[in-house]
Amino acid sequence: MQYLPYLEQSGFEVRYQALLGQDYVANLATGRGYSRSAIARAYFERMALLARAPDADLIWIYAEAFPYLPASFERLAFRSGKPVVVDFDDAFFHNYDSSPRPLVRALLAGKLQPLLAGAAAACCGNEYLERYAKRFCRRTMLLPTVVDTQLYRPGSNGRGGDEVVVGWIGSPSTWSYMRPLLSVLQSLRAELPVRFRVVGAGTQAKADAFPGLDFVTWSEATEVADVQAMDIGIMPLPDEEWARGKSGYKLIQYMACGLPVVASPVGVNSTIVTDGTDGFLVTDPDAWRSALKRLIVDAALRRQFGRAARARIEADYSLQVHAPRLVGLLQSLAQPAEAARSR
């Protein structure tokens, strides 16, 4: 969505349809359930849209058109005969080929392969995803997750109190990555003037609460301010298939706001963070504790790392840098289709 202004400035008219709406996102952020009838209705609406063969020069699909339905439904995207671009920033294919449910693996393991094989191009959030896409798609582009650095920027206030704020932002589905670290955080809280700010973990995560651990409800309207209220950002990850396909959005948010970071060296995290320059890459609990303590007690080091982190995102993970690349790709695909339609 953040690319839309750039696309429109470049002459694209963009019409979009989310499969599920903002109320679904709100429920996801809090861990609440969602109406199955509303989901079924959304699927039927998308089927009807694609079956009508939309009058467009290009169809751009994020991840997949019909989660957990067979590949035959994905082929509806090609009904119009126009180029299709697939864009994904998580290892969605592992939802199927690595599912713990045998029936899902048996029926859907190769679900995304026909979509990628028929696509004119695939935009991939990191090298792990691009390696997968290249097996099926004839044209790929590494398009990292980015933020608008005019929006995500170091805060002018909200930090610098008596306690250092170590923060995490995510969703209920990723809170499990934080649980192995909680004993480390508690020990730091007992020793140092530090608080922990958790954004978007959902109501169930409050069972893990301890003094000094503050839970904040995620909101799109306050997301940037919530990150700016932190002094250090953290991103623990297990070394697992799904985690290796993640695109480091948390790190990019933190670093764009001028925060030093501590992260697991899993997947793209090792590319985003330059260890010892803008953050620390750590593995075991002792290393996590040592890295966090070093940043908590040393305000000058936090500032030094924070400046380097901000520069890193401006140079390599900003909307301003990558929007022209995406525009160029879509123009190269849409123009032949537009010319054919005008003949």
Automatic annotation (TrEMBL):
Q: Name one Pfam family in it.
A: Glyco_trans_1_4
Which N-terminal residues, if any, form the signal peptide? none
Single annotated GO MF: glycosyltransferase activity
Q: Which residues form a coiled coil?
A: none
Keyword annotations for this protein, in alphabetical order, are: Transferase
Q: Which SUPFAM superfamilies match?
A: UDP-Glycosyltransferase/glycogen phosphorylase (SSF53756)
Q: What is this protein called?
A: Glycosyltransferase
Source organism: Sphingomonas parva
